[in-house]
Amino acid sequence: MFLISRKTLVFGISALSVFAATVSIRGYDAAGEREEIQWEQQARAVPDAARIRAAMEKLSAQPHLAGTRGSKEAAEWIQAQLREYGLDATIEPMEAMLPTPRTRLLELAGAVPFRAKLTEPAVATDPATSNPDIVPPYNAYSGDGDVTAPLVYANYGLPADYDRLKEKGVDVKGRIVIVRYGQSFRGVKPRVAYEHGAVGCIIYSDPRDDGFFQGDVFPKGPYRPGNGVQRGSVLDLGVEPGDPLSPGWASEPGGKRLKVAEATTIQQIPVMPISYDDAMPLIAALEGPVAQETWRGALPLTYHLGPSAAKVHLQIAMNNETRPLYNVIARIPGSRFPDEWVMYGNHHDAWVDGADDPLSGATALLETARTFAELMHKGWKPKRTILLAFWDGEEFGLVGSTEWMEKHAEELNRKLAVYLNSDSSGKGKLSLGGSATLESTMREVVREVKDPVSGNSLLDEYLAKAEKTSAKTTTEFHLTPLGSGSDYTPFLQHLGIASLSLGFDHVSGNGVYHSAYDDFYWYSHFEDTDFVYGRALAQMNASVTMRLADAPVLPFEFGRLATAVGGYLDEIGRLEQAKDKVSLDAVRKANGKLSQAADEFNKAFGRAGGKLSGAAPEKIAAINRLVINSERDLTVAAGLPGRPWYRHVIYAPGRYTGYAVKTLPGIREAVEAGRPEEALEQAKAVAQALDGLAAHLHEAARLLEKL
To answer: Fewest beta carbons within 10 Å, which of 88, 145, 384, 683?
Structure first.
């Protein structure tokens, strides 16, 4: 291997000073910036699309559902790769209740009886689909039940859909509901059905949403075939992720566990996912009013609301066993601030082969790990400790990451500065979400990473695509606020750790999501077929992780947070339920103080100039402690009303969305529910949090001025 000296690496390119003069990166002085730019350029040259392809082919060669032999073997292979690169990698086992199906039965009585197949047939051109280890389609954390009742169609199963049924005189009490996948997390659907008196819930994929209505179906095209089924957890994520039998504490062998009947996040009624082929006879049996146009899918029949004259028999029994989890953690020690951590995670478990979900992201992260190892051979040492995590049990409800967080919460509170995450990724538009305090830094990073097709920067591609889809005359770069649905949740919304979620959208519509057809054949034929966007993801992973790990002062910026909060307040103020009922003046006043403090902090940051690299480590550490705690300042110990596990007052998944974010969630959801007194109490909590953050920014600015 050809090696160059650190001195040559940093100063050897004459054009570097010219380049650095035109590129300013937050958190660095001039000397540190020159060195960082050079190392990041070296990092972006390392990732190899062929290696990412080979890793995906290897890891997706067999099913690797959490709690099974396949998941353990995947974790061991990842650990071996990390160690081969020269990294310190360990497997940290946990355990959790990970249900698998014991009994699944769905049938329709009547003149023409029907029994659902509940299977996904093998595809001749794709041998992986015939693997006998494929788990049959089911919903983890379904309630057990054996029920027979008429059927009612409830569209997407949202609260508003039940209001519409009531307007039409359709009662779901004592009946089974059938709902479409989409518009909310699947776990919300059976809980809302139960709240309205339903005794069972069937969830199907309508071809309008991800089947033949969208394009050719697998294996001819990328969309869901008639017998394709979306597996998935129905854990009540809106209340709390993680093992339902160890809420609030880590689930380890021999530890305390609730009884299944005591768990609050397991569904109360039986839930079953089915294909649209199996759904068609059920929907055809519905009578009653014709569904409004927006409720109609693409099946070749008239959509009625029900109830059906014939009864449906639904039977579910689960094996609610405790099974092992295997989290893989690699550690790169920090050279200057070893007790300040930057962590990047992606899960490795899958419902079946999981080429897209999660391996499209996990293999890019594995290549990021190799990149760091290569740089270390050349002399690079991150200033902060970097942790790389490959989580298990994400598909069951963020279980591996949540249990690990609960085990290490005290240390993470002291040390973890930023958590970064990726999951499944494609070759479409750049998809970025995260804490508004990291928006400026993320913009700087995507300005430097190239789109593998156009050769333009990812930033330019992002803005160009945003301009085509936006009604605005100008477009800007923004991070999407995070709700839930992946492993950033326990870090951001419970501990209050600034977080990012990185990836690329799917151009294929991801029509085989959570099915047996999400395998290497599908991904290599219909998504990132040459794996160049996987390489771009690895380049982006490496760049932003290095930027955060190496900056003398963590490059958080708070003006965009204040602007974002102002926008969220405007949104709530426009809600009909808020007008003349809920005053947001105290929050607006506190946000104004935050904006002023952010401006003071920025000016002090700028005046620190060339003092950052040479300042005494203890002085820089004191500033960084305030910056690290800034996201903690936005949490409240009591948590959100009715769900105390979620403690962030700016971002949370909606109680009735499950995945999609609710910004200023305590205020917004109280307003939407018509609870003005609760909304005022939540507004007070948000104002206090913003005031606390502003005070800490003033202190950080004072310390910067003293450098």
So the answer is: 88
Which CATH architecture does the domain made up of 48-97+324-452+484-550 adopt?
A: 3-Layer(aba) Sandwich (3.40)
Q: Specify the 3-state DSSP secondary structure of 243.
A: coil
pLDDT band of residue 253 (cuts 50, 70, 90) is confident
Q: Are 612 and 620 in contact (CB under 8 A)?
A: yes
Strands 145-153 and 271-274: unpaired
pLDDT tens figures, 296-346: 999 999 999 999 999 999 999 999 999 999 999 999 999 999 999 999 999
**Per-residue pLDDT band at 508 (split at 50, 70, 90):** confident
Neighbours of 377 (CB within 10 A): 12
Closest CA to 264 of 568, 644, 519: 644
3-state secondary structure of 268: coil
Question: How would residue 469 be classed by pLDDT, with cut points 50, 70 and 90?
Answer: confident
Under 8 Å between Cβ of 373 and 42: no
Distance, in Å, from the CA atom of 76 to the CA atom of 203, rounded to the nearest integer, reads: 35
Q: Which CATH class is domain 559-705?
A: mainly alpha
- Among residues 100, 210, 216, the alpha carbon closest in space to that of 513 is found at 210
Spatial contact of 134 and 158, defined as CB atoms under 8 Å apart: no
- Whether the pTM exceeds 0.85: the reply is yes
Assess whether pLDDT exceeds 80 at residue 2. Answer: no
Sheet of strand 200-204: strand arrangement: 114-115, 100-108, 311-319, 145-153, 176-180, 200-204, 271-274
Burial of 370 (0-12, 13-18, 19+ CB in 10 A): buried
Q: Where are the domains of the chain?
A: 48-97+324-452+484-550, 100-320, 559-705
Which residue do the tokens 């979900």 mark?
357
Q: Are the CB atoms for 384 and 549 separated by under 8 Å?
A: yes
3-state DSSP call for residue 432? Answer: strand
pLDDT at residue 12 greater than cutoff 50: no
pLDDT value of residue 611: 83
Do 166 and 305 contact (CB within 8 A), yes or no? no
Q: Where are the alpha helices (DSSP H) in 335-457?
A: 360-377, 399-407, 409-415, 439-448
Query: What is 100-320's CATH number?
Result: 3.50.30.30
- Name the least confident of 80-89, 181-190, 386-395, 601-610: 601-610
Residue in 3, 23, 22 with CA at minimum distance from that of residue 12: 3
- Prior bond to 253 cis, omega within 30? no
